[in-house]
Structures are given as structure tokens and as C-alpha cells.
Specification:
Layout (H helix, E strand, L loop, with lengths): L16 H14 L3 E4 L4 H13 L4 E2 L9 E3 L13 E3 L4 H4 L4 E2 L2 H12 L7 E9 L8 E7 L2 H10 L1 E2 L1 H7 L6 E6 L9 E5 L4 E5 L4 H4 L2 H17 L2 E3 L1 E7 L5 E7 L6 H5 L11 E6 L3 E5 L5 E4 L4 E5 L9 H6 L5 E3 L2 E2 L5 E2 L11 E2 L5 E2 L13 E5 L16 E9 L9 E3 L3 H9 L2 E3 L11 E3 L12 H11 L8 E5 L19 H11 L6 E2 L4 E2 L14 H8 L3 H18 L5 H14 L2
Parallel strand pairs: 1-6, 3-19, 4-5, 4-10, 7-9, 9-11, 14-25, 25-29
Antiparallel strand pairs: 2-3, 6-7, 6-8, 10-11, 12-16, 13-14, 13-15, 16-17, 17-25, 18-24, 19-24, 20-21, 22-23, 26-29, 27-28, 30-31
Helix pairs in contact: 2-5, 11-16, 15-16
The structure holds guanosine-5'-triphosphate, sulfopyruvate and manganese (II) ion (MN).
The site of manganese (II) ion has 3 residues, from loops.
Length: 595
Amino acid sequence: MASTQMASVGNAPTKNQTLLQWVNRCARMTQPDRIVWCDGSEEEKKRLTEQAVKEGILIPLNQEKRPGCYLHRSNPNDVARVEHLTFICTPNKTDAGPTNNWMDPEEAYTKLGQLFDGCMKGRTMYVVPYVMGPLGSPYAKIGVELTDSIYVALNMRIMTRMGKPALDMLGESEDFNRGLHSTGDVNPDRRYICHFPHDNTIWSFGSGYGGNVLLGKKCLALRIGSYLGREEGWMAEHMLILGVTNPEGVTTYVAAAFPSACGKTNFAMMIPPGEYKGWKVETVGDDIAWMRPGPDGRLYAINPEAGYFGVVPGTNNKTNPNAMATIAKDTLFTNVGLTPDGDVWWEGKDGEVPSELIDWQGKPWKPGNGEKAAHPNSRFTAPMTNNPAISSKANDPQGVPISAIIFGGRRSNTVPLVLQAFNWTHGVFLGATMGSETTAAATGKVGVVRRDPMAMLPFCGYHMGDYLQHWLDMQKSITHLPKIFQVNWFRQDKNGKFVWPGFGDNMRVLEWIVNRVQGRVPTQETLLGWVPRNGDINTKGLDISPDTMAEATSIKEDEWKAELKSQEVFFEQLGTKAPEALMLQRKLLISRLGS
Ligand code: GTP
Ligand code: SPV
Ligand code: MN
């Protein structure tokens, strides 16, 4: 077909006129040679995978060692989310707030329209209809992503309920997110991720990586989702969801917000240590939670995703055996090392370091050559049904009732292992004042403490002050409020070693949280909140000295005085939108600190 000729949407498997017209408009603008409607079938998966292999976009791995697994190498300039190129395009700048980049919607449509103009000439446009949330859930949302990336189409197939079920669920409705994506020429100078909350629209240009392009994930489920949540009275959060069952068979559901690359996937898939006979942790979700009050007044959560887009480095049979089992088959690996026998390798994998391999950039690699074999933000895309610990509720259209909410950042000092908020408002204050050291999940400097309220700094689709007020307001519609906790797995000693063992041993902290939720254990009050009494965290079978334990749980007043200063800068940024109730919490903390 001549590239100037209009590709046809005539064979579209839908009669939805709004959808057809929109696809037509986008095709007129981008001028693809072909339009392929994705149906989500096995046959299609096979065909697209073969095509991607032919184009060199996917490299087949050793199919005996890793059946159904492939490796993808992204452009080295395109390996993480780009927060400085991500925009919230609301008519008024103030609605995006001081923590988001803003672009006028008209300006954004014009600017990106010029980039999209003819950008799919010679390419195929994949029409990817998808559902975020369990099929048939009243809380699910539908999106359609138009993309010229076969890699995106294959990833969306794993990460969402994609294809025919989405079109069936959509029917004739106009209520779907309109996502348009092109990798363009993968030039960072022509890369934009623009969100139009008022139009339920996302335009993403110039990237082929993760959260920039799998539009159902951070763009729809969090940025647009948080905006819709405020309008409609629910919450879209950067949270894992897990169910923890005690030896009596009682299951408690917990949601936890940790910033990117700060342990959500690991916590959600945790295997309790040997001492915890009869305890079980099951995964509902590993990255995103949509939560709303249910008819019984409790807060219910669904995981809108169907797969995991997880950090690879550091994953091994000791830290996360469930993840290792999950990525043993049917997994797309992005930016890891390739061994001579066609397997994948990354820093922190079990076993011996290979004597040679091809690194994530496609270059020969040897141990000690000063390069990483896998990029620190290399990822796996795997279906959640591969997870041996998947919860039977992961597909429940009603979701699970949340009893505890946990906030946790990556802090080498200041924040103790665990504490419980005095009440909901104080808990919102703990979430709002979260700080975390930056990671490789976004471009930019790594290891710098920044304020990251509720782990949502990069993902909130509207004014952060309004978002915090929304959290405060939610308590009016929840009669059985979840208890709120704060944790920190990342405290270090003066030699830079983590003082808390983390991973499966986080069960010891989770047990205390569950016991607090069930009212089984008394507690000790501190200026920051309630903490475990000495000995209340079970350290049986753990090689940790009382001194180290004291270090992990210590609250140092000088550190907290510095912390308060940093929090003040954040609240000042919110200006008059800083919620009154949180300013009051701040005053109370200052008076408790006596400064
Ligand atoms: P995103 O997918 O970016 O949202 O990340 P995430 O929050 O799911 O983080 P993930 O569980 O993938 O962990 C990120 C990194 O933190 C990995 O390198 C882990 O090995 C490390 N990590 C996770 N849990 C712990 C822990 O309890 N202690 C320590 N020290 N490191 C941890
Ligand atoms: C994160 O950065 O929080 C992720 C990976 O989960 S991405 O999909 O790139 O956003
Ligand atoms: Mn994430």
C-alpha cells in the first residue's frame, strides 16, 4: 500500500461510531500504512511475536530454559520514565498545581499534533482496546491505545485485559480513554507525555519505554485515574495490594504505597520466613490500587492491572522466589543481559556471575569491566497468573476490603522501621510528608531525598494540595477506616549497610501491623506515632543484635528537626492549598518535638 494512501478502518471489529471516528481522525493525522485491531487472542500473540522477532524488536530466549520469553533492548536514551517531559494539560495552570509540569491544552495539541503529523508513514498502527480492572467490575475503566509500537501492543496484552473483551465491555459507549502513542524517532528533544484530564485523553510521543508508553499504567490508572477519582469520589493510588492470612485462617487486606523501585512488587509477593508456619501472603496487585467505599462502609480496592512490570535487578530466589517463578515463562524482559546459552542475567541474580555475556546495550560484557550487565531500571513484563502467590481475589470485580494502609519511603536515616498513625488525619499527614531517595525508575539523579506524598508525586493528575484534601475528605464516606502505618526498610548504618534484613523478613513488621489492626497488641506512644514495644517485633530466627534493632527503630530528634524543615518547604510550595488539617498536624508535631 502506498504510504500516502489512507489506511482503512473498514475491517474494524466494532460498530462504536465514536471509537471509529476517533481512530479515523488519528489515522488521518499519523498516516500509518496499516491499521491492525488487536483482539487479544493466542493466535494474535503468536503472529505479533513472530513479527517482532523478524523486525529485531524481540530476541527469542532459550525456549527450553525460558519458554515463551523474549528480550527487548530499548534505546539507551530511553530507559525510564521522564518526569521533566510529562505534562498535565488542564485549561488552568493552577489546576495542575506546583508539583506538575503544565502545558496549555491547545498548545499541547498543536505542538504534539505537529510531531504526530505523518509520523506513522511506513508503519503499522495497532489499535489496542483494553480494560483496567477485572472484567465486569463496576470499577473498571476502558481505554484504547493507538500505537505504532508492536512492543507496546505485546506488553499491553500482558498488563491489561486487552482486545475483544474490552470492545465487548465498551459496546456503544463513548466513555473510554483516548490514548495516542508513537515512538517517533526516539529523540529526547521530541519526547512528550501529555495528559488531558478534561478530555480523558493521553498523547505520548518519542519514547518506547514503560510508564511513558504503556498508557493504561501510570498515565490512565494514576494520572487520569486520580483526577477521575476526585470527581467521582474514589482514589487511584500507587499501591500494592496483598492479603495476609494468619494461622487461624483470618485474611487481612493491606494496601501499601512505596515510591518507584522502593519495594512494592517484593512486598506484594513476599514469602514469610520459616518461623511463620501457617501464615500466607497473597498478591492482589503490585503497583496500583483503585479504592472506593463499599456498601458496608469499608474501603474496597481493585488492582486495575493484569500483569507486573517489575524491576529485575536484585530479584533472586532469596529476595523474591515468587517473582522468579513468575518470570520463568511467558515473560518479556527489557534491558537485561543476554548469556551465551540464550538466558537472561542481571545484577543480583542467583548463581555464578557469567564469565561473559551481551549487556543491555548489546555490547560484549565481562565481570569487572565497569559496566552494568542489566540496566538498573531493567524490567520484566509477566502475566499475574504466573505468580504462584496470586490471590483468588485478584480478579474479583468487587475488590478486597482494606484494613491497613502503609506508607513507606527509601530513607537511609530519620524514619524508623514502623509506626502507626494516631488516626486517619494523622495518617494522611504521614503520607503527605513522605520523603524518599530517588531511584533509577525515572531519569535524573539517584539517591536524593525528595518529598513524595503518598508515592504519588510523579503520578498525581491535579493539584497536590487538592489531592491531599481529597484524602482527608474520604474519611467522611468510609465508616470502617483502615488503620494507617509508616514503614522504612532502607535504614542504613554508618557503613552504608541496611540495618533491617527486609524482603521476607518484612513479614515480622506486617505481623505487628495485622495484630494492631485486630486490636491484639498494646503499643507505645512516641512523638511520631505509635510504635511496637520492645520485643513486640518477632525476631525469632533472625540474626539481628539488639543494638541493630535499636538502630532500625530509633527516633533521633536532631534528624526530625531537619526533616521538619524539608517538610515545610514542601507545604510552602502548596501555598493556600495546603490543607488546614495537615498544617495543624504539623504544629502538633513541632510542639511534641519542642522546637
Ligand atoms: P516500581 O515497579 O518502580 O513501582 O517498584 P517497586 O516499588 O515495585 O519496587 P520493587 O519491589 O521492584 O523493588 C525495587 C528494589 O528495591 C529492588 O532492587 C529490590 O531488590 C529492592 N528492595 C525491595 N524490597 C526491599 C527490602 O525490603 N529491603 C531492601 N534492602 N531492598 C528491597
Ligand atoms: C514506576 O516507575 O513506578 C513503575 C515503572 O512502576 S513505570 O511503568 O515505568 O512507571
Ligand atoms: Mn510503580
